[in-house]
Amino acid sequence: MLFWRYLFSATLILVGAILESYSIGKEFLGFSSIGSWMIYVGFIMLAIITLRAFLKKEKIIDERMKFISQKASAFTFSLIIYFSFIIMILDGIKPLSIKLSLFMSYFICGVILVYAISYRILSRFN
Known about the structure:
By secondary structure, this protein is mostly helical. About 80% of the residues lie in helices and about 0% in strands. The protein folds into two domains: about 1-55; about 65-125. The radius of gyration is 19 Å and the shape is flat. The two termini are about 35 Å apart.
C-alpha cells in the first residue's frame, strides 16, 4: 500500500516536470502553470506519506469517536457551503483583491481549524 502511494506521488512529480519543461498549461490556482502545481502537490504528498509512515501507531477507534467525527464533518461541510455562498455574494459586490493561492491557503487552514475546534467541542460535551 505504501509503495503505491509513493509511486503515485512520484508519477505526479514526473508528469508535472514534463509539463513544465514543455511549457504546457497556463496559470492554475495561483501557480505559474499546471506543471508547477503538480510538482508542488507531489512533493507535499511525499512529505505527508513519509511522516505518516514514521509516526504510525495503532489507534483504538470506538463508535463514539466515529459519531463525533461525523458530526464535526457535517458541521464543517455546512460551514463551507455557507461561507462559500457569502464569499460569492461579497465577490459580486466588490471583487476580491487577494491572490487566489493565498485565499485558498487561508480557506483550507480555516476549514482544518473549524473541524479541529468542532471535534474538540463535540468530544467534550458528548
